[in-house]
Amino acid sequence: xxxxxxxxxxxxxxxxxxxxxxxxxxxxxxxxxxxxxxxxxxxxxxxxxxxxxxxxxxxxxxxxxxxxxxxxxxxxxxxxxxxxxxxxxxxxxxxxxxxxxxxxxxxxxxxxxxxxxxxxxxxxxxxxxxxxxxxxxxxxxxxxxxxxxxxxxxxxxxxxxxxxxxxxxxxxxxxxxxxxxxxxxxxxxxxxxxxxxxxxxxxxxxxxxxxxxx
Length: 214
Hints:
The chain is an all-alpha fold. The protein has one domain. About 70% of the residues lie in helices and about 0% in strands. It has eight helices and two strands, in the order ααααααβααβ. Strands 1-2 form a two-stranded antiparallel sheet. The longest helix is centred in the last third of the chain and has 28 residues. The N and C termini lie far apart (about 50 Å). It is a multi-pass membrane protein. It holds the Pfam family ER_lumen_recept.
């Protein structure tokens, strides 16, 4: 395990903690896409089924369990505990537009045609687009709270660090996973415009705002 992988995991965990603290302290999930959080919960569920079949390391097991628990706590807080603050009107991205092609692709392009492998591949493809409902919601409302932008920044940073991890592994271990790398690059591309706005606005103390769609 290299430093890029560890920093990526830390960034990912920090993003989730920021989101949970934001919801808990404000007692509101305003500005948060529940649909994106459902997709992330589905990503972790389908990816970490190997918890029941394979032991890699204590670190690996603990991190998987933490991500699973946090994902479902987030969904619970949005749809149950603070459901009255949930902005369902603007969280209107149609999930079937993501789930149908991702499911089909996971059957067509995978490492081996076995249930666990197909579900793992499904999780990789789905994670690359799971943030789209959140970005769509921001584009509809035209703005995002500062704490929400911090969450998105660290989520995007996690993916960028994982790309560095794959480059490192390619040169040091001659390891290359085309499915993970291509999906990770696609996911990072979705964050590029947001990264620019984060650096030019949020880090300068300005509120992130976007032109309202016509």
